[in-house]
């Protein structure tokens, strides 16, 4: 039976790209697919021949907002998250358009039979319930709670500061309480009642619904194995593997091929869909570190606009030295498919987004992380401490010392231990079954399985279990009473 599957995200390219891989796989199997995403990434979807519906929320404007840039300049990841959310709220107030209603309208217009989405879009469960549709949440970093593994939003120093070391389940609860705030909960209930649904009685009920939904952990088990309690506590969760939307049709320019023909592989430097402060200052810092380490570089401009063209004869103190160095040692481009480019580099320096982490890991090259916020500091720490395939620079580009950056460049290019560990991990990931195939299997399977709300195939909903921390509390109480 052919299905109409709607894929939904309000994120940037890093969130859309994996969904493209799933969309292409579902189309190969004879299903119809459309993606609802921000307008700034609609062209990325349409280039693959997939129907796209653009929502008005613009993450690029949010990242480029004055609030966000001030937060980045401060070097405080927590302020970055707050600034991004503030900018998002300002957009909604200014436009009078709620992205949740746009997604609701997309699902109705597209006449979807099933939904796949990113849980950063909190109202998605309400949309699925309003249309009695099966839903799979596609996760790109650890998010489901666990009693044995920490969430991907707390680096070690944050856990220590909050007194959460040795308390993974408490860390998860704090994350989820921040994920669905009282304000978010009130907005969600407003949407629910407007769509003819019963309001949730409290945040705990909303959290319970999310945790009983179908969840896909979309990363390699060789990079990050699933927690030992995942299948026990969440029977409708699966670890599918990475989703890579490759670009076999990509044709590099003769100039890029000529640059890559040099005997020494370059370092890749790019910050993707992030704006990391003043582009001139960021470019100067990267160029000085490259010059100090005598290395070549592919510099991807991305949304930050990183490029030697940012050098300013009046403001850049060493303008002529950097310009001359860049003219022969740096190749500047806006963007390039990671599946094609990264295997041709000796290492990658980036912001630590889950998508770039995945691409560099599959390419088998070591990576240095200049994290900004969200899950990025966690990935930086994990790659360095647990896998020994990365360098955690512990600051964003706006704050990192040029000498530390130069040392990181040299280690990426010359440290055999890093290179070997990264190459071994890349080989394992490349030998896995493609994640988009496993996720497509799970999506089609989920249509026939029960959900926390009635669906066409399963009109009787699941019995709602409490959130994992509430289950643990109830179990502890039961044991205490039983032992009394």
Provide structural commentary.
It is a single chain. With 484 residues, the chain is of the alpha/beta class. It has three domains: 245 residues, Glycogen Phosphorylase B (Rossmann fold, 3-Layer(aba) Sandwich), CATH 3.40.50.2000; 38 residues, no CATH class; 178 residues, 3-Layer(aba) Sandwich (Rossmann fold), CATH 3.40.50.2000. The protein is built from 22 helices and 13 strands. The strands form two sheets. It has a seven-stranded parallel sheet, with helices on both faces. A six-stranded parallel sheet has the order 10-9-8-11-12-13, sandwiched between helices. Strand 9, helix 15 and strand 10 form a beta-alpha-beta unit. Helix 1 crosses helix 21, helix 4 packs antiparallel against helix 5 and helix 17 packs across helix 20. The longest helix is centred in the first third of the chain and has 19 residues. It is globular and about 70 Å long. Keywords: Transferase.
């Amino acid at each position: 039976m052919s299905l109409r599957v709607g894929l939904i995200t309000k994120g940037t390219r890093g969130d859309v790209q994996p969904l493209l891989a799933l969309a292409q796989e579902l189309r190969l199997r004879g299903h119809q697919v459309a993606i609802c995403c921000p307008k700034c990434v609609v062209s990325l979807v349409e280039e693959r021949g997939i129907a796209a519906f653009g929502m008005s929320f613009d993450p690029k404007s949010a990242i480029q907002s004055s609030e966000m840039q001030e937060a980045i300049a401060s070097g405080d990841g927590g302020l970055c998250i707050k600034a991004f959310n503030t900018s998002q709220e300002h957009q909604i107030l200014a436009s009078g358009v709620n992205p949740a209603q746009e997604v609701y309208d997309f699902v109705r217009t597209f006449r979807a039979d099933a939904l796949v989405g990113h849980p950063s879009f909190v109202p998605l469960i309400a949309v699925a319930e309003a249309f009695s549709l099966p839903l799979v949440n596609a996760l790109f970093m650890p998010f489901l709670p666990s009693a044995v593994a920490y969430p991907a939003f707390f680096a070690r120093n944050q856990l220590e500061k909050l007194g959460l070391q040795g308390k993974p389940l408490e860390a998860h609860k704090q994350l989820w309480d921040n994920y669905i705030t009282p304000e978010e909960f009130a907005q969600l209930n407003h949407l629910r009642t407007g769509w003819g649904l019963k309001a949730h009685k409290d945040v705990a009920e909303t959290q319970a619904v999310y945790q009983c939904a179908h969840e896909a952990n979309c990363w390699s088990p060789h990079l990050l194995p699933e927690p030992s309690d995942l299948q026990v506590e969440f029977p409708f969760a699966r670890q599918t593997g990475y989703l890579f939307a490759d670009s076999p049709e990509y044709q590099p320019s003769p100039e890029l091929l000529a640059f890559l023909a040099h005997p020494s592989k370059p370092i890749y430097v790019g910050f993707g869909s992030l704006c990391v402060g003043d582009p001139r200052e960021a470019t100067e810092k990267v160029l000085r570190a490259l010059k100090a380490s005598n290395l070549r570089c592919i510099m991807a401009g991305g949304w930050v606009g990183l490029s030697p063209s940012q050098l300013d004869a009046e403001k850049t103190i060493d303008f002529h030295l950097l310009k001359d160095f860049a003219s022969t040692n740096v190749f500047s481009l806006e963007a390039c498919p990671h599946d094609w480019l990264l295997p041709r580099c000796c290492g990658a320096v980036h912001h630590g987004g889950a998508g770039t982490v995945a691409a560099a890991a599959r390419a088998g090259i070591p990576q240095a992380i200049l994290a900004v916020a969200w899950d990025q500091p966690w990935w930086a720490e994990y790659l360095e401490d647990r896998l020994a395939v990365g360098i955690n620079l512990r600051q964003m580009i706006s704050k990192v010392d040029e000498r530390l950056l130069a040392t990181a460049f040299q280690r990426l290019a010359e440290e055999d231990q890093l290179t070997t560990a990264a190459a071994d991990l890349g080989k394992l990931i490349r030998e896995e079954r493609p994640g988009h195939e496993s996720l497509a299997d799970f999506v089609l399977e989920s249509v026939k399985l029960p959900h926390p709300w009635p669906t066409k195939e399963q009109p009787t909903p699941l019995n709602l279990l409490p959130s994992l921390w509430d289950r643990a509390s109830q179990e502890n109480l039961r044991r205490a009473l039983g032992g009394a």
